[in-house]
TrEMBL record:
Record has Protease as a keyword: yes
Protein name, UniProt field: Transglutaminase-like enzyme, putative cysteine protease
Domain Transglutaminase-like residues, every copy: 158-218
Alphabetical keyword list: Hydrolase, Protease
Length: 258
């Protein structure tokens, strides 16, 4: 399928500010860029660097007083949406080396605190069956409520509060998967169904020898997502990191199926 992406950012800055930007959809084996353009306005510095796992790129910018950025793209998604329940478990001692760090606890995903809960709640289920159980638990126990969480909210906070946004749902999903000995990471994506329209966070789990996307919010499916970046948790996939003070003037994300 084809999707059109339009991102507009407008911030007032407190003087000279360094910005690390990651908003461009990545060219991958299962998604391709039909066309794309980014305009970061007047910058003193513009330099691209590889993002985590070489999925996409980040851009270092140095901007003074105001940052106005426009990004547009048309992406073709060639990815299928597999039946997660049928995916096989892979013993941890046979996992590829590059997946091991995604078994470990991270800042927003303290999976070591959830091992007892996962064992008690999901029993002896494994692989795709375990992931379906995790996703069902999230659907049954978490409410999507904008504004109740912030940039420092962890999976533990969301587990206790039982509400959050896509970032929080993804953190809980990643945490419970890791606590179940399934490598899991967070993924920033664009998708046309997101309500309210915004940058969207989902999870990716390593089962049956491959990474597979899952959306714990249930808003979209893998065949309708354009991946931007991946990481251990939200700290690795932030669309913009500012080294200085800023005031938001305007921000919009529009994604439409073509």
């Amino acid at each position: 399928m084809l999707i059109d992406i339009d991102v507009q950012l407008d911030y007032d800055l407190a003087g000279i500010t360094d910005i690390l930007l990651q908003i461009e959809a990545s060219p991958l084996i299962d998604q391709s860029i039909q066309r794309a353009h980014i305009d970061a306005g007047a910058t003193e510095h513009f330099f691209r660097i590889p993002a985590e796992e070489a999925v996409g790129e980040r851009i270092w910018l140095r901007v003074t007083d105001r940052f106005v950025c426009s990004y547009t793209a048309r992406m073709e998604i060639q990815r299928q949406a597999p039946d997660i329940s049928r995916l096989l478990h892979q013993p941890v001692h046979m996992l590829p080396p590059e997946t091991i760090k995604y078994l470990m606890a991270s800042r927003y995903c303290p999976s070591d605190e959830f091992q007892s809960f996962a064992a008690a709640e999901f029993g002896n289920s494994m692989g795709g069956e375990r992931m379906v159980a995790i996703l069902n638990w999230i659907t049954d126990n978490l409410a999507y409520v904008p504004g109740v969480s912030g940039p420092w909210t962890t999976a533990t906070d969301t587990f206790v509060q039982r509400q959050g946004i896509c970032r929080d749902f993804a953190h809980v999903c990643v945490t419970l998967a890791r606590a179940s000995a399934i490598p899991a990471r967070i993924v920033s994506v664009y998708a046309p169904e997101i309500d309210p329209p915004d940058f969207h966070a989902v999870a990716q789990v390593f089962l049956d020898g491959k990474w597979h996307l899952v959306d714990p919010t249930g808003m979209t499916t893998p065949d309708r997502m354009a991946i931007v970046g991946v990481g251990r948790d939200a700290a690795d996939i932030a669309f913009m990191t500012l080294y200085g003070s800023a005031t938001l003037n305007r921000q919009s994300v529009t994604v439409n199926a073509v």
